[in-house]
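Structure in, sequence out. Go:
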């Protein structure tokens, strides 16, 4: 953030604090960097998250709650406005994740930095293509659900209809179960519409975290993950096994070790990739991740 933006943000915070003493405002940040080496090809350094988060919440005259969240990264500034109606929360803005993207993290993954969803690229959570979105979330009878609608892209070659995304979460006999589906309809002739979906199950037993995840891209590709994690000698350790059913099947094995140290956390991941029918595309990758937050 440059000096002028920082001064502007500080001034805005001062005005908001003066006009609403009972409001709440917070600022936080996160940096996640990774050193990686695949098949001894040389060390590479990159960051996956470099963000500042600003959050402001207050209540309106009618008693409804309202909050504004802003994330500032090197790629974009995204903002979402959330209105708590008392009968669910309505979300607006370009910072609103698709309903599926907000729930499809894998409980079978135990890495600090690599647990977004499927390991292969055939699964689309509908988030990036949604653009500015409208969302509604609520909890009824022990089931939390989220529905989002993206905006239409009218370009005849690259456009799409509004993306609808649905996801829900509940607890069954101690297990956390989540599921969802996105409806992605393209405008270009010859581009097949898809309805990618997911199901995850997480369960804790005798100090062990057990996880299962299934991601169906609705495009001929499906991935299944299973994993187990625990704490050992002050560290978090876990192993993940995954199978991607593609035109050429791929098996993954990942071993993750992490250590939290207050404001900073560190992790090491070893990922083995085995492609069916040969060894040309097999790989062994090491990744060292450091995460600093405030």
């Amino acid at each position: 953030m440059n000096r002028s933006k920082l001064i502007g943000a500080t001034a805005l915070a001062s005005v908001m604090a003066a006009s609403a003493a009972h409001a709440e405002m917070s600022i936080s940040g996160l940096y996640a960097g990774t050193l990686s080496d695949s098949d001894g090809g040389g060390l590479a350094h990159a960051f996956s998250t470099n963000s500042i988060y600003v959050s402001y919440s207050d209540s309106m005259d009618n008693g409804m709650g309202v909050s504004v969240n802003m994330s500032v990264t090197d790629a974009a500034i995204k903002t979402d406005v959330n209105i708590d109606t008392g009968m669910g929360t309505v979300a607006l803005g370009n910072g609103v994740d698709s309903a599926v993207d907000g729930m499809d993290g894998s409980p079978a993954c135990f890495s600090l930095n690599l647990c977004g969803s499927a390991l292969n690229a055939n699964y689309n959570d509908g988030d990036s293509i949604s653009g500015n979105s409208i969302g509604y979330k609520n909890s009824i009878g022990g089931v939390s659900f989220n529905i989002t609608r993206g905006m239409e892209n009218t370009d005849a070659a690259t456009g799409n209809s509004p993306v609808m995304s649905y996801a829900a979460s509940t607890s069954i006999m101690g297990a956390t179960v989540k599921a969802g589906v996105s409806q992605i309809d393209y405008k270009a002739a010859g581009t097949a519409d898809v309805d990618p979906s997911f199901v995850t199950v997480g369960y804790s037993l005798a100090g062990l975290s057990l996880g299962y995840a299934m991601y169906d891209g609705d495009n001929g590709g499906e991935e299944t993950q299973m994993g187990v994690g625990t704490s050992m000698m002050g560290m978090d350790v876990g192993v993940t096994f995954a199978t991607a059913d593609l035109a050429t099947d791929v098996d993954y094995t990942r071993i993750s070790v992490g250590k939290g140290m207050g404001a900073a956390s560190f992790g090491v991941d070893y990922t083995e990739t085995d492609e069916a029918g040969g060894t040309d595309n097999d790989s062994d990758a090491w990744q060292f991740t450091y995460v600093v937050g405030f």
